[in-house]
Amino acid sequence: MKETAAAPAATPASASAAPSPSAKPDGGTSTAAQAQVLYKDNCMSCHGAGLAGDFGPNLTKVGSRKTKDEIVTQILGGKGDMPPFKSALKSEEIEVLAAWLADKK
Fold first, then answer.
1. What pLDDT digit, counting tens, does each position of 48-65 carry?
2. pTM listed for this prediction
């Protein structure tokens, strides 16, 4: 019975390890994984799941319309209905997110 109790303890430990990169995007995860977490936490509510657009525009091919630097500028300062994220995100996070979005062509 002690072995059975130990097995469920191992499962929550591995499950609790998963949110760690989500909480700290600059953890040991890949930049694409970091960008996806940042998108989910900051952009998906307006731009939709899969970058398909919702309240905000579709971003599935944003890299064919905007350069990385243009995307950084938009994230920092906002535009139209989009709020600025210069206070909400660290500059490193904006760089990771913008590079990931610029690759969407």
1. 999 999 999 999 999 999
2. 0.72
- 47, with CB counted inside 10 A (0-12, 13-18, 19+), is buried
44: Cα separation from own chain's centroid: 8
Q: Is the dihedral of CA 18, 37, 23, 99 positive or negative?
A: positive
What one-letter code names the amino acid at 55?
F
3-state secondary structure 14-33: HHHHCHHHHHCCCCCCCHHH
∠ CA 48-50-55, rounded to 5°: 15
- Of the candidates 16, 46, 24, the one whose C-alpha atom is nearest the C-alpha of residue 96 is 24
> Is the distance from CB of 93 to CB of 39 less than 8 angstroms?
no
Amino acid at 85: F
Helices (H), the chain: 2-17, 19-23, 31-42, 44-47, 68-77, 91-102
Examine the pLDDT at 20 and tell me if it is beyond 80. Answer: no
